[in-house]
Request: fold
Amino acid sequence: MTVAVVTGGAGFIGSHLVDALLAENIEVRVIDNYSTGRPENLAHVAGKVDLVEADIASSGNWQKSIKDADWVFHLGALADIVPSIQRPDDYFQANVVGTFNVLEAAKHAKVKRLVYAASSSCYGIPDSYPTSELAEIRPQYPYALTKRLGEELVMHWAQVYQLPAIALRLFNVYGPRSRTSGTYGAVFGVFLAQKLANKPFTVVGDGTQTRDFTYVTDVANAFLTAAKSSHRGEIYNVGSGQTISVNRLVELLVGDVTFIPKRPGEPDCTFADIAKIRRDLNWQPQVNIEKGVEQVLANIDYWRSAPVWTPASIATATQDWFKYLGNDGK
Reply:
């Protein structure tokens, strides 16, 4: 039986990947310190998964879980923009040192495949859309930088140590189990909590900015497809094949709107060129935005305990964002 290790497996994307692996009768081990992941995300597979609570930023017994693994999926990381500006050391430890530790364990275990969750935030504000893997790298904040540095490590280990690794640059992932806590940032979580509370959606700028919203089960399938492939040392975009405006998202979610100031360092558009992953891995997204929003609304109770953001609380939470990324930081 194939043995797979998923770091960050109790998180949003990780828990859906666990589901996809179990559906293929693969033995799954999850390593998570629950800094952002939730035990509830794996409650439905209790007894089917080996759970190891550990911090990958520190060497330890968790590395033994990789010793006889076939596949390693490295999703464990700290997310969010504002905390990365406020606590860059934490992000470097989790996203860079943690990645180094996972790579070393995978190298010594001689795993057959390592798939890294990279971030499309590495592109910053691109020059062209859809954005290909050849676009210039321009991280705008420490989260994006640390995820990019992790990606560099993965590619270097593939080159120097012949580690059979692939990196997937993920675009605007959404769906059930997305994070309900953390500093303001993830539009779906913010909007769904506001909808439950009968509050207006806080739309950044004028809402005409577009995003490549990619449904989480499509992303989980991309990880599984990458693990099964023979390609190595490659980087692939993972997107939905389309880009829609935030105003269109609001139409689908149905609710009133209030507009808040546009944030510095954010692109007006995210749109993945997915020609490479379609060609090399024969992967294609299956869930369009209409179907995805329908699925999210069917699971909306998940966000009932999420914080309800207002223009005032958002302004307070994003002060450092504007301070360091706006004109005041120049």
In short: The longest strand covers residues 113-119.
